[in-house]
Request: fold
Amino acid sequence: MTKTPVRVVYLTHTLGVGGAEELILNMVTRLPRDRYEPIVCCFEDPPGPIGPEIAAHGISVIPLGIIPGGGARWPGGRSSVSFAACGR
Reply:
């Protein structure tokens, strides 16, 4: 019987160049893919230069488009985000 990999969502403000972003890059690229499916959600859109590096490893990078202190840019004027968007 084959087990379905567990989705692990990493949520971060930005994927600019920095220590926390490098840590996320290192963690998600080293997870055993037979057991885990890493997904990176980022508040900013575009996510920053580390985003394409993560995506190059076949890992989903989902920019949420949330403006710090200004709500979200969602069609229809919604101001909240559903974390279900990270698990698509």
